[in-house]
C-alpha cells in the first residue's frame, strides 16, 4: 500500500516558516565562503573595478582591514589575486618568484592584521606574464607544460614562505600538484595545503576577472589548450582523480553555477572537500540582472549560493561572500 493524494500533501511541509526551516536540507553559513580579494600597487588606495561593480582592488596597506572585516563576519578564508604593474610583467613571469611581490606583501599584511583568517594564493602565471597566459609559451604561442610546472613550483614555495596557508594551482598544467607537494614537503612546509583547481574550464565567464588582474588586453589567443572543454564531464572526474592521486587536499570546480553537474558528480565519486568558484562573470550577471530590475539582488545571491550547497559543495569562492555573510547574519 502506498499513500497518495489526498493523504499525501507535500505542501504540508511548506505551510509555516518554522516548518520550512525545520525541514530545510541545506543551509548557508558564513564558513561556507572564501572571499577573493584583489591587490594593487601603491598606497592608501581603493581602485574600483569597472567590470566588477562593487569589487575593488586594495593596496597592501589596506588589504588587512578587508580580511579583518571578512573574519568578523565569520568568513574563514580569503583568496588573494594581484594586479601586477605593467612594467613588472614579462615573457617569463619572473615577478611571480619575487619574495617581495604584491602577493607576498599582501599575504604578510593579512597575516599581521588578522592571524586567524586563512590565506589562499593562486598559483598560475597570468598576472605576471606579458602575454596573459597562465604559463610559459613557445615560439608558436603554445603553453609549455613541464617548463611551466617548474616555475609554478617556485611560485608556490615563495607564496608558502610568505605565509600562505593554501596554495591553489589554477593553471591546469599536468603534474603540477605532485611537483608542488614534493617541493613543499622538501621545504618543510608540511602544513601548507593544496587546493587544486582540478576541473577548470575554458570559460567565457572569466572576463571581468581578467580586467581585475589586468590581463584581458594582454591575452594572446585563448586558454583552450590547457583549460577544459565545456563539452566534457567525464574528463573532469579524471582530472580530479589525478589531482587527488598527486596529493591535493581539496579540489575545485570552476566556473560554478553552469557546472553544478560537475560539482555533484565530484561529490558523489570522491571523498574529499570540493569547492566551487562562482566566478567573476557570474557575479557580473547577478549584478547586471539586479541593476536592470530583472530580479532582486539579495534573493539572487542567496539562491545561487544555496544551489552550490545542494549540489554538494563544501564551500564557495564568491565575490558576494561579504554580502552573503551579512544577509545570513541578519
Ligand atoms: N589562472 C587565472 C585565474 N584564476 C582565477 C581566474 C578566474 C576567476 C574569475 O573569473 O572570477 C582565472 C582566470 C583565467 O583562468 O583566465
Ligand atoms: Mg589536471
From TrEMBL:
Keyword terms: Heme biosynthesis, Lyase, Porphyrin biosynthesis
Gene3D superfamilies in UniProt: Aldolase class I (3.20.20.70)
Catalysed reaction, written as an equation: 2 5-aminolevulinate = porphobilinogen + 2 H2O + H(+)
GO molecular function terms noted in the UniProt entry: porphobilinogen synthase activity
Coiled-coil annotated spans: none
Pfam families associated with the record: ALAD
Domain of life from the UniProt record: Bacteria
Enzyme Commission numbers on file: 4.2.1.24
Pathway involvement of the protein, from the record: Porphyrin-containing compound metabolism; protoporphyrin-IX biosynthesis; coproporphyrinogen-III from 5-aminolevulinate: step 1/4
PANTHER family: DELTA-AMINOLEVULINIC ACID DEHYDRATASE (PTHR11458)
NCBIfam families per record: PRK09283.1 (NF006762)
Subunit structure: Homooctamer.
Family: Belongs to the ALAD family.
The name this protein goes by in its record: Delta-aminolevulinic acid dehydratase
Lineage: Bacteria, Pseudomonadati, Pseudomonadota, Alphaproteobacteria, Sphingomonadales
Amino acid at each position: 500500500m502506498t499513500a497518495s493524494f489526498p493523504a499525501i500533501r507535500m505542501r504540508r511541509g511548506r505551510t509555516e516558516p518554522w516548518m520550512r526551516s525545520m525541514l530545510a536540507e541545506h543551509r548557508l553559513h558564513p564558513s561556507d565562503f572564501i572571499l577573493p580579494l584583489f591587490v594593487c600597487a601603491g598606497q592608501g588606495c581603493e581602485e574600483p573595478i569597472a567590470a566588477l561593480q562593487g569589487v575593488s582592488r586594495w593596496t597592501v596597506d589596506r588589504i588587512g582591514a578587508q580580511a579583518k572585516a571578512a573574519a568578523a563576519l565569520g568568513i574563514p578564508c580569503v583568496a588573494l589575486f594581484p594586479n601586477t604593474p605593467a612594467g613588472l610583467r614579462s615573457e617569463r613571469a619572473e615577478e611571480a618568484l619575487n619574495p617581495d611581490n604584491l602577493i607576498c606583501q599582501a599575504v604578510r599584511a593579512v597575516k599581521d592584521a588578522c592571524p586567524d583568517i586563512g590565506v589562499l594564493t593562486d598559483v598560475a602565471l597570468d598576472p605576471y606574464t606579458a602575454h596573459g597566459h597562465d604559463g610559459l609559451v613557445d615560439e608558436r604561442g603554445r603553453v609549455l607544460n613541464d617548463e611551466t610546472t617548474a616555475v609554478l613550483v617556485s611560485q608556490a614555495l615563495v607564496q608558502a614562505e610568505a605565509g600562505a596557508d593554501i596554495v591553489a594551482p589554477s593553471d591546469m598544467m599536468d603534474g603540477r600538484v605532485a611537483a608542488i607537494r614534493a617541493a613543499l614537503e622538501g621545504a618543510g612546509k608540511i602544513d601548507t595545503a593544496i587546493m587544486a583547481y582540478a576541473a577548470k574550464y575554458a570559460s567565457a565567464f572569466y572576463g571581468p576577472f581578467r580586467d581585475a588582474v589586468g590581463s584581458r588586453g594582454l591575452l594572446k589567443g585563448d586558454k583552450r589548450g590547457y583549460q577544459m572543454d565545456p563539452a566534457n564531464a567525464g574528463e573532469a572526474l579524471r582530472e580530479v582523480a589525478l589531482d587527488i592521486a598527486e596529493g591535493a587536499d581539496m579540489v575545485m570546480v570552476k566556473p560554478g553555477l553552469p557546472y553544478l553537474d560537475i560539482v555533484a558528480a565530484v561529490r558523489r565519486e570522491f571523498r574529499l572537500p570540493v569547492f566551487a568558484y562562482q566566478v567573476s562573470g557570474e557575479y557580473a550577471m547577478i549584478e547586471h540582472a539586479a541593476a536592470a530590475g530583472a530580479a532582486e539582488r539579495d534573493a539572487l545571491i542567496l539562491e545561487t549560493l544555496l544551489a552550490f550547497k545542494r549540489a554538494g559543495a563544501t564551500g564557495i569562492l564568491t565575490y558576494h561572500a561579504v554580502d552573503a555573510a551579512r544577509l545570513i547574519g541578519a
